[in-house]
Write a structure and sequence with these properties.
about 110 residues, mainly alpha, 2 domains, elongated
Length: about 110
């Protein structure tokens, strides 16, 4: 097996627990890459650097966070959070304006 750094690992040497660490790290690296590509293709992540997936993952799995908090973070990352304008277009009783009186487009 070759790690993402290019190091070769002999899977017959060492304990299964030690090898588990490398397999999990490789899997998370692949998932992070796919998620970054997905967010860039949707146009919701415009930075050249990838998101801090370690912090995002830690926030999402923290036991003290509510489902609403996790949903809000994921909606923000994917660009699907509803604005006043979106709610107004989809039948909710709003004027589509923010508190300053201008059209809300965030």
């Amino acid at each position: 097996m070759v790690t993402r750094n290019g190091n070769t690992i002999d899977l017959t040497v060492g304990t299964p627990r030690m090898l588990h660490k490398y397999i999990v790290a490789a899997f998370q690296h692949n998932v992070n890459g796919h998620l970054s590509t997905y967010l860039r293709s949707k146009g919701t992540w415009t930075s050249d650097e990838d998101p801090d997936w370690v912090t995002i993952r830690a926030f999402l799995v923290h036991k003290m966070n509510t489902t609403a908090q996790n949903n809000a973070l994921l909606q923000y990352l994917c660009g699907t959070n509803g604005t006043q304008e979106w709610l107004h277009i989809h039948g909710w009783e709003t004027d589509g304006r923010c508190s300053c009186g201008q059209a809300e487009t965030l």
